[in-house]
Design a protein that fits this description.
By secondary structure, this protein is mainly α. The chain has 19 helices and no strands. The relative contact order is 0.16. It comes from Candidatus Epulonipiscium fishelsonii.
């Protein structure tokens, strides 16, 4: 009973402090698990061993992020995405549907480089066109949110990496299984963007035609002078191909890719050091958080707290619903994910659900993928996600209005993704 009680106090304390923005995951994962393990009577030596076990499971994913983040920063700065965006913008005209379609394609591509890249490229590039065509900025934010949620399923996406840490597997193992759902998701969000385009076209009255000259001027304002585009694009596609083939560990793939990209785009040592410093903050914060999450995962598992918490929760779950636990959580993952945020959802809730699911014979991977698919599209409507506020500041939207406008669409997309996962056999009932 004591193990369960202290386990719940620890988890809900972490969730509360994250929700209230009182502390970072980094500090909470370092301090709280050892403290609660001490309260349970474990020695410092034992706690160190538990933490080491947990960190061992997170290290490969942390290394992946440590090198893939600066890699995409380097090729993005070199303008790898710009040529693609230029081609897309060249198709822009006064057709509302074509603009919404271009928006989702740009988002799916730019999100390979992360949420900041997507927001800083797509919104400034398209918002003036949206305004000229009288398309609501809320539609732009919604399309970006749906595209981010789908692209983030890649192995260097934070949700996939967090899930891999909880399961103690490689991020590529999850991606290879969820890839068919991701492909289906791409089709779903493209269709959703087209549908939004048709809806906006009906809503727009007294539309002022956007002159082609205005678009051409605007394109020149937002595009940089790219370099080494063909080489960078070839290198990126090669790295993704190696990840799919699973020939070598993913972090080694991006170590090599990072080194090659650095030499190609910045041939002198001074420029290379400048690039490394430029991307260091982003490249170190998330991997550091992942490493410290290993302390949480290791201690809560090895002390027996997680097992005790799961046994307590079993009293409240009817037996006939037990085998459908993952489906229930998949459906609820979008609203729960909005409230909890990413770290609390993946490191607090997911391990507990997995432990409960084991009692009913539900495979941990099955639960993890169901919750990952259900949660992922809600990333840009959770107040606990920093990139949301970047999008809001660039679009000029209010938080409440944005969540209200997006929720029903994104929740619907998450349900469609879950149905696709079930029909494809990725999620097993």
């Amino acid at each position: 009973m004591l193990y369960s009680l202290l386990g719940y106090i620890m988890v809900f304390s972490i969730i509360y402090l994250l929700f209230k923005n009182k502390a970072t995951p980094l500090t909470l994962f370092i301090l709280f698990p050892p403290l609660f393990a001490l309260l349970l009577g474990f020695s410092i030596k034992e706690i160190g061993e538990f933490a080491t076990i947990g960190i061992h499971t997170t290290m490969s994913n942390a290394l992946l992020f440590m090198f893939c983040i600066p890699y995409f920063g380097i090729v993005s700065d070199a303008g790898m995405f710009d040529k693609i965006i230029e081609k897309l913008l060249s198709k822009a005209n006064d057709n509302v549907i074509s603009i919404t379609l271009i928006t989702i394609i740009m988002t799916l591509i730019c999100q390979l480089g992360g949420a900041s890249t997507t927001a800083l490229v797509v919104i400034p590039g398209l918002l003036p066109i949206y305004k000229k065509l009288h398309i609501r900025p809320a539609v732009l934010a919604l399309i970006i949110a749906s595209g981010m949620g789908i692209t983030n399923l890649v192995p260097w996406g934070a949700p996939t990496a967090r899930t891999a840490i909880v399961l103690g597997v490689k991020a590529t193992d999850i991606w290879q299984r969820v890839l068919p759902v991701q492909i289906a998701g791409i089709i779903i969000v493209i269709c959703s963007a087209i549908l939004l385009g048709f809806r906006e076209k009906k809503l727009i009255k007294n539309l002022k035609v956007l002159e082609t000259e205005d678009i051409q001027i605007h394109k020149k304002e937002i595009l940089r002078q790219p370099k080494n585009v063909a080489i960078n694009l070839t290198l990126t596609l090669t790295l993704i191909g190696i990840l799919i083939a699973d020939i070598i560990p993913s972090y080694i793939v991006f170590m090599i890719g990072f080194a090659i990209a650095l030499l190609i785009n910045h041939p002198d040592a001074q420029s290379q050091n400048a690039q490394f410093k430029k991307h260091a903050a982003t490249a170190l914060l998330l991997p550091a958080t992942m490493i410290t999450s290993g302390i949480f995962v290791g201690i809560i598992g090895e002390t027996g707290m997680l097992n005790a918490m799961a046994n307590t929760l079993l009293y409240f779950i009817p037996d006939f619903l037990g085998k459908y636990l993952h489906i229930i959580m998949g459906i609820l993952s979008t609203p729960i994910g909005i409230a909890l945020g990413a770290d609390a959802f993946y490191y607090g809730l997911l391990p507990l659900v997995i432990e409960v699911g084991k009692t009913y014979g539900v495979d941990p991977m099955n639960i993890a993928i169901t919750m990952l698919v259900g949660k992922n599209v809600s990333v840009l409507i959770s107040p606990l996600v920093p990139s949301l506020f970047l999008v809001l500041s660039l679009t000029g939207l209010e938080l409440n209005a944005h969540i209200k406008f997006c929720f029903k669409w994104l929740f619907g997309i998450s349900i469609l993704l879950l149905l696709c996962a079930i029909m494809m056999g990725v999620v097993i009932i």
